[in-house]
């Protein structure tokens, strides 16, 4: 199965199979599950979420898509416009994967906070007392 990229500002009410809709303005992507079950798959885009790469061959979305809350439990990659199927995960693997995702998000948020500085640092910058 092939999937093509379509840039949109707002997500359409009706999604078409084989289309990865991407709103860079809102930092999100959506598509219909590659298994054909009709479920809508939403993937937030960002440093601690999914990353999108646009290539001449088609879009690449990382990490993999794991529809663990859907009846189909589909697990696949979108790589250069192609769907690459993976095996289903056990409940323990899903829990571990979610913990890794949460830890990655927390590291990203901690790094942002560190770059901005603490509340005192922001206050000093706001008052013009620090660069």
Task: Write out key terms for the chains shown.
131 residues; alpha+beta; 2 domains; four-stranded antiparallel β-sheet; globular
Tally of DSSP β-strands? 8
Most strands sheet: 4 strands, mixed
Radius of gyration: 18 Å
Coarse shape = globular
Helix proportion range:
25-40%
Structural class: alpha+beta
Distance between the termini: 52 Å
Q: Could you give the order of the helices and strands? A: EEEEEEEEHH
Number of domains as seen in the coordinates: 2
- Going across the major beta sheet, what is the strand order? 1-2-3-4
Number of helical stretches of at least 4 residues: 2
Which runs of at least 5 residues are low in confidence (pLDDT < 50)?
Answer: none
How would you state the average pLDDT, rounded? Answer: 88
Tell me the β content. Answer: 25-35%
Explained architecture:
By secondary structure, the protein is α+β, with helices and mostly antiparallel strands. The protein has two domains: 1-88, no CATH class; 90-131. Helix content is 26%, strand content 32%. The protein contains two helices and eight strands, in the order ββββββββαα. The strands form two sheets. The protein has a four-stranded mixed sheet, with no helix packed on it. A four-stranded antiparallel sheet has the order 5-6-7-8, with no helix packed on it. It starts with a strand and ends in a 5-residue tail after the last helix. The mean pLDDT is 88.
């Amino acid at each position: 199965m092939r999937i093509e990229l379509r840039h949109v500002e707002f997500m359409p009410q009706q999604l078409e199979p084989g289309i990865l809709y991407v709103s860079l303005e809102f930092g999100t992507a959506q598509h219909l599950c590659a298994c054909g079950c009709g479920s809508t798959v939403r993937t937030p885009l960002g440093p601690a979420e999914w990353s999108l790469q646009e290539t001449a061959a088609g879009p690449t979305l990382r990490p993999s898509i794991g529809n663990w809350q859907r009846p189909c439990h589909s697990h696949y990659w979108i790589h250069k416009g192609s769907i690459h199927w993976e095996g289903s995960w056990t409940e323990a693997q899903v829990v571990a994967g979610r913990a890794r995702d949460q830890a990655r998000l927390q590291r990203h948020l901690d790094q942002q906070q560190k770059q901005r500085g603490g509340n005192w640092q922001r206050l000093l910058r706001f008052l013009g007392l620090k660069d």
